[in-house]
Amino acid sequence: MQPWNTARAVIYGAAIGFAAAAVKSFAPWSEPHGGGLAVIEEFAGATLAFALLCGIAAALRNFVVRRLIWRELR
Predict the structure, then answer these.
(1) Distance between CA atoms of 42 and 49, rounded to whole angstroms?
(2) What is the separation, in whole angstroms, between the first and last Cα of the chain?
(3) Which long-range contacts (CB under 8 A, 24 or more apart) does 55-64 make?
(4) For the segment 6-45, what is each residue's pLDDT rounded down to a tens digit?
(5) CB-hemisphere CA count at 13 Å for 35?
(6) CB–CB of 3/62 below 8 Å?
(7) pTM listed for this prediction
(8) Where do the domains of the chain lie?
């Protein structure tokens, strides 16, 4: 069992957030945005939110594994 790479999780989370913002922004059922700045803010917000979420999840998983599981295996 290896620890998860948090940097890789952040990068993958950013890619997922960017894709989610793209789907929401360019979907035909989406409401029109106020302009270019609103679209950029939405992309940046979703990218950062998903990146943080995935990074924190990986770090929490590593913490739990180190404290609870690996200690029992020794």
Answers:
(1) 10
(2) 13
(3) 55/6, 55/9, 55/10, 55/13, 57/9, 58/4, 58/5, 58/6, 58/8, 58/9, 58/10, 59/6, 61/4, 62/3, 62/4, 62/6
(4) 999 999 999 999 999 988 887 766 666 667 788 888 899 9
(5) 1
(6) yes
(7) 0.79
(8) 6-73
